[in-house]
Each structure stands twice: as C-alpha cells, then as structure tokens.
Specification:
The structure holds two protein chains of two kinds. By secondary structure, chain A is mostly helical. Chain A is built from eleven helices and no strands. Chain A is 81% helix and 0% strand. By secondary structure, chain B is mainly alpha-helical. Chain B has two domains: 51 residues; 35 residues. Chain B is built from four helices and no strands. The longest helix of chain B has 31 residues. Chain B starts with a helix and ends with a helix. Classes of the chains: A mainly alpha, B mainly alpha.
Chain lengths: 203, 90
C-alpha cells in the first residue's frame, strides 16, 4: 500500500507540475518516456528472471495450477466485454488492454499510454490501482462467498507481492503458493497480452 | 513495440544468470522503483498539460472504476467455478 501511495504521489506531482508549467515543456516533446520504458522493461525482466520463488514454482507446475491464471484472464475478459456492452466510449481493444493490466498499474499504464495515448494510460492507471485496492479491502468477503481462489483472481498480477499478505491470511499458506504462481504468470503476461491485443486490433 | 518484449526477455535471461548476486538484485530493484516513479511523473506531466484529460477527469475516473468492478466480478466468478470444479475437496 505504501508503494502505491508513493507512485500515486509522483503521478500527482507530475500533474501539478504540468498544470502550473513548473518545468520546461521540452521535457514532453522529447521522447524520454519511451527510453525510460525500455529501461523499465529490462529491469522488470531481471526481477522476474531472478525471482527464486518463480524458479522453484516452475518445478512444481501441474496442469491444475495453470488453470488459476487462465481463469483470471478469461474471467477478466468476460467482465470487461460485459462492460463494453453497457458503454459507448471506449473500444473493445482498449478495454481488453486495460483489463490485461491485472492490477499491475505502473507497467500497464505506461505501456498503454505509449501505445494508445495518455487518456487511456490514465484510465489504465486508475483502473488497475482500483483492482489492487478492491482486493486489499474485500479479500475476506471474496473468500467467504466465492472460495479460496477468488482473492487470487481479484488480485491478478499483484497476488504475488502487494496483495499476497492479506490473501495468505484468509486462504492459508498452502493456497499462498498458488497465489504467487498465478501472480508471476500474470505479471509476465501483462506486457505480452497488451502488445498482442493492440497488434491484433491493428491488423 | 516488440522492442519492449525483447528487452523484457533479455532481462529475464540476465536475471536468471545473476539470480544469486544479491547486491546486483538490490540495485536493479531500486532502479526499477525509480524508473516507475520517473515514468509515472512523466505521465502525470503530460496529463497536467492535457486539457482534454483534465476537464474529463471525473468521467475518466468513473470509467476506470466501473471497468475494474466488471473485470473483478468476471474473474471472481470464473475462479469460483474453477475452485468448485477442480480444487475443492469433496
């Protein structure tokens, strides 16, 4: 939670600096953010590759555990498609891409704003932060009514780190392994699915 | 944007090779945080200079929240199904 607040603070400070033109606007005309994004992706890769949990988990994979991230993806896309039907502003590709953040708001918002523009980047940021907050607040309710996999699904990519403590508390440490696994798989898939959705929609 | 995926794959490879180097990993962890801070700051900066986003912020916020509610409900129902079919001990 503290991490999210710091990130949000940087976003808000950026907005304020933008509104009051506290910085030379040249900063925006140059494409610094693209290079920073490249650096970030490389670093995120290192984080995933060096994750000991991830390495150990690959050895324990069975077909059943793979069903969990798969359900999260399918369920998210079904929900997002339902939302598409009741609104008329956003394209289905944009909605699916935002949904594919699975709570990983920093990466998804940055990536989507590069590909599809700042407005969608902001929606991706707010949407995926909301996903993390909902999971932190409602995990006990989800477990009670929808079983032990529910908070893992709600947490999405965050089920491996930021929402893991609260999830573990309510589903027990045997299911915590599944939570980490699902989170790791979804984290890796976030950029891949976002790129794929925009690639397909541009065909 | 395929560059993004290639860079991530390359990073995974590097991370896998150096996964025992604690100092290197602490450093990349810190750098990751600062790269995120910088990028979110830059996103904020372009939002702050974008009147279209600023004047629609409430609308954008509501869209984001309702989209998430649908995404979460969908994934929870799917997880509930998977749990009952494959995980729950009878």
């Amino acid at each position: 939670m503290k991490g999210s607040l710091i990130i949000l603070a940087f976003f808000v400070i950026g907005i304020i600096a933008g509104i009051y033109e506290l910085l030379p606007l040249q900063l925006l005309q140059n494409d610094y953010s693209l290079y920073a994004l490249y650096l970030l992706m490389f670093l995120v890769g290192i984080g995933i590759g060096s994750n000991k949990n991830a390495l150990n988990l690959i050895k324990e994979v069975n077909l059943k555990i793979l069903l969990v991230p798969f359900s999260v993806i399918i369920g998210t896309y079904i929900g997002v498609s339902a939302f598409f039907l009741i609104q008329d502003n956003l394209k289905i590709s944009d909605l699916l891409a935002i949904g594919s953040g699975f709570g990983y708001y920093s990466l998804s918002s940055i990536l989507i704003s590069e590909i599809a523009g700042d407005t969608l980047g902001v929606i991706a940021l707010l949407s995926n932060i909301t996903r993390e907050i909902i999971t932190l607040l409602l995990t006990p309710v989800f477990v009670r009514y929808f079983g032990k996999l529910a908070p893992i699904a709600s947490g999405g990519a965050t089920a491996m780190d930021t929402t893991l403590p609260v999830i573990t508390k309510y589903i027990g440490s045997d299911y915590a392994i599944i939570s980490v696994f699902s989170g790791v798989v979804l984290t890796i898939l976030v950029p891949i699915l976002i790129e794929l959705i925009y690639f397909v929609s541009n065909l | 944007m395929i560059t993004v995926l290639l860079l991530m794959s390359f990073g995974i490879f590097i991370g896998w090779i150096f996964h025992a180097r604690e100092k290197f990993l602490t450093l990349t962890g810190k750098l990751t945080n600062w790269a995120i801070y910088l990028l979110l700051f830059l996103l904020g900066l372009s939002v702050g200079t974008n009147d279209k986003i600023l004047s629609n912020f409430d609308k954008i916020g509501w869209q984001a929240i309702s989209l998430t509610v649908f995404a979460v409900i969908g994934s929870i129902l799917m997880a509930w199904l998977t749990y009952n079919l494959f995980f729950k001990k009878r």
